[in-house]
Fold this sequence. Notes:
Blueprint: H1 11-22, H2 26-33, H3 37-45, H4 52-62, H5 66-84, H6 90-100, H7 103-108, H8 122-130, H9 156-170, H10 179-191, H11 202-208, E1 212-216, E2 224-231, E3 235-240, H12 247-262, E4 271-274, H13 289-302, H14 305-315, H15 321-331, H16 335-346, H17 360-363, E5 368-370
Parallel strand pairs: 1-3, 1-5
Antiparallel strand pairs: 2-3, 2-4
Helix pairs in contact: 2-3, 4-5, 12-13, 12-16, 15-16
Amino acid sequence: MPLNPSDFRTPGQYIAALMAERGWTQRTVAIVLNMSESAVARFISGKSSVDAKLALALEEVFGVPADDFLALQRALDLAQARLVTKPDPGRATRALLYGDLPVAEMIKRGWINAESIRDPKVETELMRFFGANRPEDIEFLPHAAKKTEVSVHATPAQLAWLYRVKQIAADMLVPSYSPQAFAATMPKLRALMVSPEGAAKVPRVMAECGIRFVLVESLSSAKIDGVCFWLNDASPVIGMSLRFDRIDNFWFVLRHECEHVLRGHGRDAAMLDAELEGERAGIGPDVTEEERMANGAAQDFCVPNATMDAFIARKAPFFSERDLVGFARVLKVHPGIVAGQLQRKTGRYDRFRDHLAKVRTIITPNAIKDGWGDVAPVEP
């Protein structure tokens, strides 16, 4: 019966068996391989390794595949390494932290205090940022005892953005929230939509109603638009990323989050809204009832759905600048808001792009913000 390499634990044992099968001594092998007897003795005893060059020579001598010798050597090396290597339970945790979190970007943004991603302080700073006692207790890790309550499955980058919003919101001072006052504010907010400059008044209007309104620039991999949650079940928070610097997107996302607040959403789980553009703004089967409500309210707030449908029915397939501007004037909103809703309805995002005015530089000077070159002063 031919020898089976799987019956041996080391390449030296296999070679010795092949030698015995042929009645060869170590001197015979040394002469055949043109090496010293001591060298042969070392790889048979396992004191030296069988490398690829030697495996090919053994293949020629014994007529068995070189891979058999190399496979036994790899198995032996791994077994020996396991004996001397101490397990590092933190290695898997670090893989998740450094692999899934945009740590370098968090350092650059001033969210964690470290010189670089290799700074020994990084793990301590991440624990501080996420309010954990140990790295493995950070909430998005598999074995963390406490889990972040969010309305949808969130990526680590999205959770990091949410935590930053929470940190900033917790430091804000606002009056007690009044549901009645906030509901009465909706017409006032809509009156601000006539021009880009109206966005500048939004932070003050929110604060007067007891809303903690925070602007935090999105992390590059987060693709986050906004969030609604409550502090101590009494103080609502609206966070926005201004990921798309367009007047239509700003008002749609703002009204979307306002609807969450008006309906009391986000008390048990933060309503984290990612990628509200395109398909996520629709009414597909993956959209929850709470999101359907918020999407519908936001759409009707920007341009009433029935009114927009009637406009499209009258003008399709040709929409002129004059029609767009005239329709916006009737609605008493900026033409960019109509253009944005028209793009959503028709799927033609190339139309009327010149009307999509920017609002970021208008609103950020009046808001509590983090990002775009600024770091919000948050108490450690």
